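Chapter review: from sequence to fold.
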Amino acid sequence: RISPGTVALDEVSLAIEPGEILALLGPNGAGKTTLISIICGLVVPTGGTVRVGGHDIRTDWRAARKLIGLVPQEISLEPFETVANSVRFTRGLYGEGPDEAYLEQLLRSLALWDKRDAPCRALSGGMKRRGLIAKALSHRPKVLFLDEPTAGVDVHLRREMWTVVSDLRASGVTIILTTHYLEEAEEMADRIGVIDKGHLMLVRPTAELMGEFGRKQLTVELDAPLDALPQGWADRGITLSPDGRRLGYDYDARAERTGIGRLLADLNAQGIGVRDVATTQSSLEEVFMSLLENGAEARR
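The C-alpha cell string follows.
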C-alpha cells in the first residue's frame, strides 16, 4: 500500500530462477516500478515477504541489497563528477574496495572507457544510460533490475545495450526488466510476467505464452481475383480481401488439425490458382493487449 486506501500491489507471488531474464510488462501505473522498489529496499511494503538469494530484505537487508544492482528509469548521475569516479563511488557504497582492473573491464564492455574522465553531464542520453548500468554493476551483483533501460535510447545504442544484457546473463547474472518495447521482451526474455492494476496476471515462458495466446494467419495470394468466396468457406473462418486477390485464414498452430491442408486441397479442387502463401504470427504486443482486455473483462 502506498497511501491509505490505495493498494499498489495485491498478492503478487513470484519466484525468479538464477541466471534467467524475466520481463515484466504492464501499462503505466500497473505496479512494475513499485515491485522493483520494494525488492531493492527503496519502498517498505505493508505486508508479505521478499527473499533475494535466501536473504530476507527486511531482517537481512544488508546481505540482500549487496546482491542487487538497479538501473532506474530516471537519469540519476552526479553531473559534475567523472564517469569513472561515479562508478567508484557507487562501488564504495556497497563496502567494496578499489578494483581498477574490474572498473576498466566494466567501462570497456559498455563502451564508456574513452569517456572515463568526462563529466557525466557531458554524456549523451544513451551514454548516460550506460553509465547507470555501470554504476549498477560496480559491485558485481548477482541480480540486476533494469527499469525501462532503453527509454530514450536510439536503435543502435539499444541493440548494443541488449548485447551487454545477453553477456551478463551468460555470466550468470539474473536480470529482471520492465520495458515498453515489447519486441525486446519477446526476443530477450526467458519468461514474461504481465502485471495490471497491482495484480500479477500470469508468468509464463515466452515461447509458451506466444504459443498459447499468439495465433497465426495464413495469407493466400491468388492468380486471379475471386468475385466471392465459395459457399461455406466463410463459416470456416476464411476471408476474402476487398480486391478478391487474397484469402485470409486464422488458425491455431498447436492444434492437431489446422485446416490448412483442407483449404489448399479445396483450392485445387475448385481450380483456383495460387500465386503465393505466407504465414504471420501475433506479435507480443497483440498478445499483451488481449491479456489486458481479458483481465479487465474478468474484473467487471
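Two observations follow directly from the output. DSSP finds ten helices and twelve strands in the chain. The mean pLDDT is 86.
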